[in-house]
Structure formats: C-alpha cells, structure tokens
C-alpha cells in the first residue's frame, strides 16, 4: 500500500529507504541485462485530492478515483466535478478507501473497489449509458472482510477474456499471521477472476483453476500474494504483470503469459521474492518473480504499472513501466517470454507514486500522493 502522511508512514511495516543504489537482480534475471535508456518527461494535467486509481473511460476519457470516495473525469481543463461520491460510505483509516475502478470492455458498466465504514472490501457495479454513470443502478458484486486496516490490495481490472480480476492482499498486519497467502479457502492474498455479468451477484468462469477443488475458493485465479497493490494486462500481448509489495527486504514483479490457465503460486508467505521468508520452505509449485529488487536499493514499496503501448514514445513501446512509492523514479523492464532482457529508467521522478493509469490511446498517467496527475510525455 502507498499512502503516507507527512508526519508518519501508514504503509504497514514498510520503511523509507534513502539509498538509491542499483537494484539487485532476481535469480531469473541475467546479471548482465542491458540497460535501455529512454528519456521522458512528466506533464502535469490536473490536481486531485488524494488520487488513488484510474481507468480509461468511454469516448477516450480518463476517470480518476480519489481515495476519500469521489470519481472525476479528466479533460483538457483538468478534473471535473465528481460523477460519483461515496465519501460518506468509506474510510481512509489505515490503507483503506476507494482503491480501484474499472470499466467493462463495452463501457456498459463501471466498477469500484473500496473499503466500507466497517473496513470490509466491496466491489460495486453501476450501469453506464452514453458515457453517463447512473448511481441508482448500483449493486454489490462481492464483499470480503478485512481483519486489519492494511494490505487490502483493492485493484480491479478486466482481462482480455472479458472477466473481472480482483486483487486482495493477505489481510494485513505483518508477516501474514493467518497464513492467508498459502491458504486456498480464503480470498485474501489472492488474485480473483469472476464474471460479474454472468450471474447474481456473479458467476465463476468454468475454467478457473480451482473449480473442482472442494477445499478451495472457486474465485481464485492465483495465490501467494502479500499486497498486490497494482496489476495490469499488456494491451499488446495479454500478459499479466503484478507489482506485489514486499515485507521488509524484497519488492517483486510477477508475470504470467496470456495463455496461462491460472493457479500460479507466487510464494508468499513462504517466500519473499526468490528468498525464503523467516525460515519458510519454498513451495514445490512456486512461481518466482520475473524481477525483484532489494530494499537497500530502489525503495520500499513497488508500484506496478503498465506495458507501454502508446505512440508518443516509440522507443518505449513494449517496455513495462513501474515505480516505487519511496523512490519515485519511473523505471522500465524489457521482457521476452517471461525473461528480463533489459532494465532502465525514464530519467524522471513522479514523487511518491501511488498508481499508473493507461489511457485508451495507450498513453500513461502517473498519480502522485501530492495530488498531481501527470502524463508521461517525450523529454
């Protein structure tokens, strides 16, 4: 999680690391991976109150969520008046709030992911017609009790398959005290996959990996996650990338190919990245991160981003852009078939980066804790 006040950190057990040495390569990354340097700039396009997430909307709009519970539409003059306000239904206590928004592929429905006043994670749906959200059509799709105020996760995205993916953290505290990451009888510490239009309140896709396992939740797509704060699908390939926030030593980025059948175990809390956590034993089915970095290097809390598919920076196309809340540098990975073939950065810092947003045109926006909404532009 990413939110911090000026006087104290509220990102669980994460601590600010000031050393900005080079990252330590993961076991699966070639030690001599070449550096690909692409220069970019950040253009401020708006200011928000605690921006937390965003989504490409109808008619090439970009919708921005504010953590306290409002959603605004970005246009040439900045952010308009709220099109949705649930500020009386959510809390910003701990790492809670309005944490994710998404449209389905036809822009017929809009989804929000937030924690309510009792701290329960909720996914709600609204009908959209001619680009207008209709608050009176609201319905609750899914809820999940959260035992602590941190590691709620909260990101939501529609995959290339048209299903809704939901990321939940391990439930909070530190060190996964309830062992949720490796348990299959809870939705915590998981990436879920559901069909919100296929049933009431939703349907389970028949090819989800655990539908025939009586001891597992049918909604689970992948597990072994600590706090998958931000994940995305490559608009070009359909590959999945997850930025999973580490406990105390390692930040990781997980990858799965577009043709994955699900069921990946990313290791938490037996593993932190490629390293056994507190004497844990590596699971036999552990899928190691495609990339990890040491907290003595690049920061303290990975902010997952997107594979760039826009036109403004052609040399960046196909690179995964991500950052770290404590470092802020916009960094890049070049990947081929799940292997890192190059690392680099854009030579610019987004400050305390909360999230990235991919516009309908493939251009990227950066949300900072200061409230600045920036577009990634050529240098």
Automatic annotation (TrEMBL):
All residue ranges annotated as the Glucose/Sorbosone dehydrogenase domain in the record: 55-369
InterPro entries in UniProt: 6-blade_b-propeller_TolB-like (IPR011042), Glc/Sorbosone_DH (IPR012938), Quinoprot_gluc/sorb_DH_b-prop (IPR011041)
Superkingdom field: Bacteria
Keyword entries, A-Z: Signal
Signal peptide: 1-23
Keyword Signal: yes
Pfam families cross-referenced by the UniProt entry: GSDH
Protein name: Glucose/Sorbosone dehydrogenase domain-containing protein
Species of provenance: Streptomyces globisporus
Lineage: Bacteria, Bacillati, Actinomycetota, Actinomycetes, Kitasatosporales
């Amino acid at each position: 999680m990413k939110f911090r006040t000026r006087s104290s950190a509220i990102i669980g057990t994460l601590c600010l690391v000031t050393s900005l040495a080079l990252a330590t390569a993961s076991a699966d990354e070639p030690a001599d991976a070449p550096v690909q340097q692409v220069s970019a700039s950040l253009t401020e396009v708006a200011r928000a109150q605690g921006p937390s997430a965003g989504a490409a909307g109808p008619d090439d709009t970009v919708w921005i969520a504010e953590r306290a519970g409002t959603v605004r539409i970005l246009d040439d003059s900045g952010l308009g008046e709220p099109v949705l306000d649930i500020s009386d239904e959510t809390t910003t206590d701990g790492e809670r709030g309005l944490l994710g928004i998404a449209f389905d592929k036809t822009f017929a429905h809009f989804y929000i992911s937030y924690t309510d006043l009792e701290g329960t994670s909720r996914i709600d749906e609204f009908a959209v017609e001619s680009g207008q959200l209709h608050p009176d059509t609201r319905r609750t799709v899914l809820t999940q009790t959260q035992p602590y105020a941190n590691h709620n996760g909260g990101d939501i995205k529609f995959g290339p398959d048209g299903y809704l993916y939901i990321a939940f953290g391990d439930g909070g505290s530190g060190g996964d005290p309830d062992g949720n990451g490796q348990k299959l009888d809870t939705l915590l510490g998981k990436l879920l996959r559901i069909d919100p239009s296929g049933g009431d309140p939703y349907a389970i896709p028949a090819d989800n990996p655990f539908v025939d396992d009586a001891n597992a939740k049918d909604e689970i797509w992948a597990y072994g996650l600590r706090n998958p704060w931000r994940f995305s699908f490559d608009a070009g390939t359909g590959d999945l990338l997850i930025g999973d926030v580490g406990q105390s030593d390692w930040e990781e980025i997980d990858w799965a190919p577009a043709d994955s059948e699900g069921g990946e175990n990313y290791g938490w809390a037996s593993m932190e990245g490629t390293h056994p956590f507190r004497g844990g034993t590596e699971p036999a089915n552990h899928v190691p991160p495609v990339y990890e970095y040491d907290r003595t290097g690049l920061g303290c809390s990975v902010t997952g981003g997107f594979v760039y598919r826009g036109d403004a920076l052609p040399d960046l196309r196909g690179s995964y852009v991500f950052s770290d809340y404590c470092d802020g540098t916009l960094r890049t990975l070049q990947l081929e078939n799940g292997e890192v073939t190059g690392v680099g950065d854009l030579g610019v810092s987004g400050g305390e980066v909360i999230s990235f947003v991919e516009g309908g045109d493939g251009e990227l926006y950066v949300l900072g804790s200061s409230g600045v909404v920036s577009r990634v532009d050529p240098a």
